[in-house]
Amino acid sequence: MRPQLSMRWMLPVATGLVIGVAAHLVSVLIMPYQAPADAWARIATLGPTNKVLLVPQAVADNELIPLLDPAFAVAVCRYDLSRGSLKVRAPVTADYTSISFYTRHGLAFYGINDRAAGRNVIDVDLMTPQQKELLPADEEITAADRLIVESPTTTGIAVIRALVREPGARPAVEALLARATCEPAN
């Protein structure tokens, strides 16, 4: 009789576990779309779209972007490609500089650093796949001359990070980041 008693409870317990796991997964996956103070909204307080803005250094209990590494100076550009493609440019520092691209809801889709760019400026043409299709086929422009990044969405965030080797170098690194641009590619 004991095996029947345990089998009677197996179906309700298994059903409860499946429903619980499904509810947990749905809530975790939908949270970035429902959060009122997501990265996009917090960065909007710094300034307009399609403009590079320095992120102030974090102070206790008042971080614009949580969990930023204090060894890096950070600038951001909230971009909107609905009116056309953008040219994102960032001068490189002596130590390390990178640009990462995220969708409006935080999905990372591309990143490049100064070592991969191999130049004194990281220069990226950011556009949607539809905008890329409209580009003329120019045989004189090679992949080495022009780095094209396709954004899966029309809005998103470009994050520029530069290593600050020592605290006294922060003003110089931030001045270099302030020269970064995120402008229409005309």
Automatic annotation (TrEMBL):
A Pfam family reported for this protein in Swiss-Prot or TrEMBL: DUF1254
Listed InterPro entries: DUF1254, UCP010244_IM
Domain DUF1254 residues, every copy: 74-184
Origin: domain of life: Bacteria
Protein name: DUF1254 domain-containing protein
UniProt source species: Blastochloris viridis (Rhodopseudomonas viridis)
